[in-house]
# Entry
Amino acid sequence: MIAVENLVKRFGKFTAVDGVSITVEPGQIHGFLGPNGAGKTTSIRMVAGLLKPDAGRILVNGHDLARAPEAAKAALGFIPDRPFIYDKLTAGEFLRFHGGLYGMDGGDTNARITEMLEIFELGRWQHELVESFSHGMKQRLVMSAAFLHRPKAVLVDEPMVGLDPRGARLIKDIFRLMASRGVAILMSTHTLEVAQEMCDLISIILKGKIIAHGSVADVRSMAGTPDEELTPVFLKLTGGGALQEIDEIV
Amino acid sequence: MNAITRPFPYLLLPIWWASRNRARRREKGDLVRGVLFGGIAIAVVSALFAGSFWVTWQAASYDELGDYLIRIGLSWLFLTFLSFLAFSAVVASLSTCFLSDDLRLILAAPVASRRLFAERFARTLAQSGWMVVVFLVPVLGGVGFAKCAPWSFVVTAILTIIPFVVIPVGVGSAVTLLLVNVFPARRARDILMFMGLVFATSIVLLLRFLQPERLLRVESMPEVTAFFATLQSPVTPLLPSFWAGEALFAGVQGGSDWLHIAALWTTAAAVVVMVGAAFERWHFAGFSKSQEARKARFAQFHALDALAAWLPLSPVRRHLLIKDLKVFMRDVSQWSQLLLLVALMLVYLYNFRVLDLDRLPYMSGVVKNLYAFLNLAMAAFVMATVAVRFVFPAVSAEGAAFWIIRTAPISLRDFLWSKFWTGLIPVLLLTEILIVTGNELLGVDPFLKRMSAVAVVFMAFALVGLATGLGARYPRFAADNPSQVAGSYGGVAFMIVAVLFILVMIGLLGWPSSVYLFSQVQRRALSEAQYVMIYACFGTAAALSMATWLLGMRTGVRALEAMDRTPA
# Structure
């Protein structure tokens, strides 16, 4: 559903993404892990069509993003880390506009908007201006927009930032539900517990390169720590040994 | 209907919906703001109409020469707008096509490039063209009325203005597309801001130094044709401004010039088609590049750190000062506006220099001293304008970073007073230069010179204190830029109070000064009662200034201390 092949992105002399390849099948949740500045958001933004890759190919639902961007984007939902929402629109108006961008114009649009707002527990805020929303509410509104047009694949950049435990639980349940309906989800996250709990497969990126790929169990065995939680595995693979020294200094 | 085939105006819906929502949910002060700005707009439009009517009426009395002047004047007016529109479009399209936040939403959706271009071009057209259209309508209305033009002139004007605006906006958008593909967009914006202001400044200076007032002198009439002839050049007939001028000149005389109207429309169509094709080809590459501008070049201002270290300030105030100055000087959109201000000041002072008051031998002394008060009032208005634009937004400029101040172990009183002193010094210097130089060029009475110089100090304290205080009382932490803050309810309230303060001050200073000056002219000593009144007036003016300053600051400190929400 999402196929990324040898993706490369350079900023001047700095190579932010260096030959990344990922495949996310329908119904799969793929975790994209890595420390700050590893290239996660850059990769996600390229797949979302916001950044032009210097090399590589991106296929969404079989459509090449470079050759048929509209067809590829029509099959995709995108949840950015810092979403833009028109502050002076109501939640309902924002979703109606967003749905329109994806070709939703039928009589069932309003019903679908109400359904999505209910799912994300924003039903009673439908006619309120977005500017009065908390960060978590805005995050949930953006998520309801991403799933509104029934996408085949969804890109998520740091989904749990700013969500309370109840909100986080809700999002996890919804992602699982959507995946069970065949939606392919590519999710970048810092929260290793989330990745461990939700993802069928994970890829760990470091300095622009994928350094580990597979199921959580596969990655554990790659790190040589099969019985441990994901956090020490992640730290071992990404050079987090320095944390030990910091701990001593502090 | 699929989004891919949906007409482009769909993408403008959020603007329409947001405007509707904003109109429904009125904010405090909307009515005051509406009445004030509406009144100013009506006054400006009426003045433009009356001015163009008068000029055309006067010119028409010179028969053929008058027609020539109107014709060439229209061409010249449109030439000015042509360059203004092109520059304005370069800046506007940079924002609409590359830097606008909603592009991240739109570009992630399946929206065809050509529809995105149509929508962004419409926005750019509206953003850069509205001012020209608002200006042209009363001006052309005045010309039409003065020449008793038929109703068909309205049709000709519409048919001329639309393609005339489209052409430079299209060219400006193309320039931006090229620039953004060469430089990162954020760097390009800085360069353009600077270029735009240099352009505006040179236009202001050029217009002033051409001395258009020469044309109003009867004895200089033969110079008129020579003056306008210098504005013509061999390339002029190839420019859309010339075509627009010719088409409108024919229209105002009841005829029609279809050749030039056709030239305007075909050029506009060609420009839109070509820019549209270029947009489809290069927009995404440019947008992508605009996301990549991670490292910005900036000045370190080590000298500023060293200088601040010498100032007798507490560490907190010193670091607040350094932060404010560095943030200001690294933001091109901020400091470059000072360039325009300096240009306007030069023009203002130049006017005093060329003012030929000695032509009125008996009255020159009185008129000069009257001008000294006008100068004081003007300097005070300049001070109020500078204060509302640069000092009033000082607290709001902290924006989402205000939590740093709130959580730091410093008092909000210290914070606000630091903002006050940072604003006071430049405002006071600027106005003192204006007032001292202006009075020197005028050659006013030494008493008035001293009085004005001292009065400016008091007024600077009062206006800067009021601006700082009200800026803290009515902050707009979420505003995108300081201009938005200046135009907010608090900004308008400040301007109203400031204007009232200035008028009262001029009254309090003007009356005793005139009594003193007349006694000098008549070589008569002042009576004791007159002395008492003079001192009372000056004392009241000083007390009013001190009260405005301290009350302004106190209201600001209290508002900050009472603030229950900190933006984050």
